[in-house]
Design brief:
With 107 residues, the chain is mainly β. Helices cover 0% and strands 45% of the residues.
């Protein structure tokens, strides 16, 4: 999964109810399952047992969603966009949006 990285801003393009069209930052990428964890999206409640360092109770955590349900936000147009990987003359790879803008830090 080259198109998504931790720290990218994404928009949910498919989903149930209020999840659709939500924006958030990618917190974790799980390439083996093809899933991502997006901040503020797919929040579930877990009943946690009390431990030595944390209090018990009901905790809200962000659950993973399928990576095919999110699209990267183009930094120029501020809209969801498809991404391609482009190889530069010096051999480095960069992610490029449809508008031609380079996404993320340049390698």
């Amino acid at each position: 999964m080259r198109r998504l990285r931790v720290g990218d801003e994404v928009m949910v393009i498919r989903g149930e109810g209020r999840e659709r069209r939500q924006r958030g930052k990618v917190l974790r990428v799980i390439p083996s399952k093809g899933q991502v964890v997006v901040e503020g999206v797919n929040t579930v409640k877990r009943h946690m047992r009390q431990g030595p360092q944390r209090a018990g109770g009901i905790v809200e955590i962000d659950a993973p969603i399928d990576a095919s349900k999110v699209m990267l936000i183009d930094p120029q147009t501020d809209k969801p966009t498809r991404v391609r990987v482009q190889v530069r003359e010096d051999g480095t790879k960069v992610r490029v949006a449809k508008s031609g803008a380079v996404i993320g830090k340049q390698e």
